[in-house]
């Protein structure tokens, strides 16, 4: 009895599986690289969120800004702007920490729902950051004018009433901003400088209106640069999160879910055995077809 010889198409079945395994390994490698990039991006966003909270707290405790705030009335425009900046900074820092934590959880559990929430929150944050950037470009002069109006009110109160409150706050403002007085009538200017400025500041004769506006605009420029840096990482995170989310979605049809992990939780040998099963069945069926065509008895195919 002759043995069942393999069909001429058998070498083709033996060559095809390595090609498919190579493609699967390449896909698995690309998705793992994207996950690592997204994980690093989430870590940077978490650090930036912590920095935003620290800067917001520093803004509330900074000597110059705090001196102007304590000198102004609760309903003044400068006080309203400072409170708004502190509230927005606290909310943005908290959201950045939350979205970074959700992103890490979504990567660890390979959850499409968590990654979808991350994409939505990042999109909302990006829109908010665009609005904040536009506001910093358009309202720089308004912030400086709010501080100048507050100083003008203190000078006017001191010139008319010579109140102790106005004198105390003017002394604090001059010390904090290293300036002394402003352009006043000749009869009022010497009194203001002698009563509220130290001898060293009187010699410098630095105008307080210019100094206050310049200092506030410098703070606003630092905030603008910081917003641009955070917006860059938000755009990068939004792109990477969408890639990972779509790859997990497609992995259901590829029968690959659970294998594109950063830690490589599933053994690669198990994945190769699963990939080789369809090709083994195709090879067995080809051999059986060849035996039927040649009318030769064939042994029962072994199951792997």
Description:
By secondary structure, the protein is mainly α. The chain has one domain (36-259). 81% of the residues lie in helices and 0% in strands. The chain is built from 10 helices and no strands. Helix 4 (112-138) runs antiparallel to helix 9 (208-254). It is rod-shaped, with a radius of gyration of 35 Å. It starts with 9 loop residues before the first helix and ends in a 10-residue tail after the last helix. The relative contact order is 0.14. Residues 1-19, 252-260 and 262-269 have low confidence and may be disordered.
Strand content: under 5%
Shape by Cα distribution: rod-shaped
Number of self-contained structural domains: 1
Which spans have pLDDT < 50 for at least 5 consecutive residues?
1-19, 252-260, 262-269
Largest sheet: none
Which structural category do the helix and sheet elements fall into?
Answer: mainly alpha
Secondary-structure element pattern, one letter each: HHHHHHHHHH
Helix content: over 70%
How far apart are the termini? 26 Å
> Measured on Cα atoms, how large is the radius of gyration?
35 Å
- Please state the average pLDDT score: 76
Summed up, the helix count is 10
Number of DSSP strand runs: 0
